[in-house]
Amino acid sequence: MKNKGIIGSIIALAVVLIGVFAYQMGSRQTGAATDNKEELKTVGILQFISHPSLDQIKDGVIKGLKDEGYEDGKNIKIEFLNGQGDQSKLNSMSQQLLEKNSDVLIGVATPAAKALANATSDTPIIMSAISDPIGAGLVTDLKNPGGNITGVNNLTPVDQQLDMAMEMFPEAKTVGMIYSSSEENSKSQIDRAEKRATKDGLTVKKYAISSSNDIAQITQQACQETDYLYIPQDNTIASAFQTMINESDKAKKPVFVSVDNMVKEGGIATVGQNQFELGVESGKMAADVLSGKSKPASTPVNVIDYGDMIINEDKAKELGITIPEKIKEKAEVVKGE
Amino acid sequence: MIISAIGQGFLWGILGLGIFMTYRILNFPDMTTEGSFPLGGAVCVTAITNGVSPIFATLLGIVAGMCAGFITGMLYTKGKIPVILAGILVMSGLNSVMLFIMQTPNLSLLKQPKIQDFFTNLNLPDHFDIVLLGLIAIIIIVGLLLFFFFTDFGQAYIATGDNENMARSIGINTDRMKVIGLTLSNGVIALSGALIAQNDGYADIGKGVGVIVIGLASIIIGEVLYGEVTFIERLVAIVLGSIIYQLLILVIIKAGLDTTYLKIFSSIILALCLMIPRLKEALNLKTGLEKGE
């Protein structure tokens, strides 16, 4: 090899590698005693992607910490990073949060929590709004997590949702469930919903979409074959929800959704969980870990599987559906946008 | 952090080497990359979760990537589908293949054996397991590539890329060369996908998005920084390019720029690197004119 640039670069690389190696090996022996300094505690938050409901969770986490007396800039430092849906960045960001000596890490959405879990097995991790922590391999036991991970597990209130749908459309025989095949959580929610609906004597037709481009066609198909549509918590569908509503409106079929803000956007109703509140709960758990009150290993995962009914009256009128008074009394009524 | 970035650079450098085999030698961009990369990871992680040993699982991932490349090659040479289109077709088809293999869009390796465990158990400082793994993989791949390209067969392969008509006139079956090139290249890409999936701890069907940019970035940074070099140096330059790209990304994160807009910064880095030869040329041209006067 004659190129000086390449040889130089390789030498530089080797020097850095060997240097850091020697330094870290050396500091291993002398270390330990030096990190007793009184510093601001650091909370690292890693969010998977910018998305209205995830942003709400993040805001909720910060609120939850504040409620427990931990405020950014006063007695803690909050390091917030957003992976913008890029899997490889989530890893380097997890590393960075660890480098900043985070005392507790908070992962917003499953991929972020997974990246954090993969980066450390010591620093406590609080999962924020993860729908299937066991399936994702984050914890093995909800009651007794054992490792460095605990947090909030939000189970979409599927049973409550389908009960409400049954009450609203007692004559319905078939329900169409549309979900995206590339989202783990979405699929597991549909599995639960299918089980429940079949138990209640409904025929379930499932339609998987592989990208938001399929939504129009699949919705048309589903509207022809079913009495009403049921949509899980699904990022792909959420971002193309207007397309779906356009089609279902043409066919005069109601769409039962799983997220509260999708009711405003044209869904008929849901039993929704307030994302902000989920965040607040995770923030409180993080605060307990910070103050030393609890340890992730012995803190049960907080399973939240209930919610509030929300209905869109304008949409009901538009589709000619009368909402039973019984539901109207209990539910929060919103107007369409 | 720096060590982690260097380790990542090695693993992504393998991807660069794989893309190099088609993009620079055969002179066409192979879009199959964005499918074979996550495919390698998907097959490998599925195999590991089913109890296959990590090394063998990684080999399975490579084989899967080679199959993908082979299909693109057949569509291109036998089906006469333009190569970019053939690659895109295979890439989007692989999305379903991965779903079929994994049965879920995202499969985790938490608490499962991984190929780097051997190095992790040596109790090295943080991230040196990945550096070692990457380094060994790079040495093996570069060695194999060098061996391959200096056989008669490899020379015929290079000739195909240099001048297809010439190659055909001296009796080289250029179609076969292209198929083999695509097959091998995607095998290398899948290896990179399998190693990165194990390093990340999961496989995801969305992992392929944008990887071709990372691969091209390594090749181009290597070329721009080190200029005209011999073949072996070129391969090394790609790996160095990959490390430099990872370090640049690290600098961006460290500099405290808003990571929400990370993608535009990586695009800017790449665009700048691509423009450096032009900028150099423009400057040279100017001085040339001055002398002329």
TrEMBL record, chain A:
Originating species: Enterococcus avium (Streptococcus avium)
Name listed for the protein in its UniProt record: ABC transporter substrate-binding protein
Top-level taxon of origin: Bacteria
InterPro entries to which the protein is assigned, alphabetical: ABC_SBP_TrpX-like, ABC_transpt-TYRBP-like, Peripla_BP_I
Annotated PANTHER family: ABC TRANSPORTER, SUBSTRATE-BINDING LIPOPROTEIN, ABC TRANSPORTER, SUBSTRATE-BINDING LIPOPROTEIN-RELATED
Automatic annotation (TrEMBL), chain B:
UniProt xrefs under Pfam families: BPD_transp_2
Keyword Nucleus attached: no
GO molecular function, one term: transmembrane transporter activity
Membrane topology per record: Multi-pass membrane protein
Protein's cellular compartments: Cell membrane
TM regions (residue ranges): 9-26, 55-76, 83-102, 130-158, 179-197, 209-226, 235-255
Gene3D superfamilies: ABC transporter involved in vitamin B12 uptake, BtuC (1.10.3470.10)
GO terms under cellular component: plasma membrane
Assigned keywords, A-Z: Cell membrane, Membrane, Transmembrane, Transmembrane helix
Name by which UniProt lists this protein: ABC transporter permease
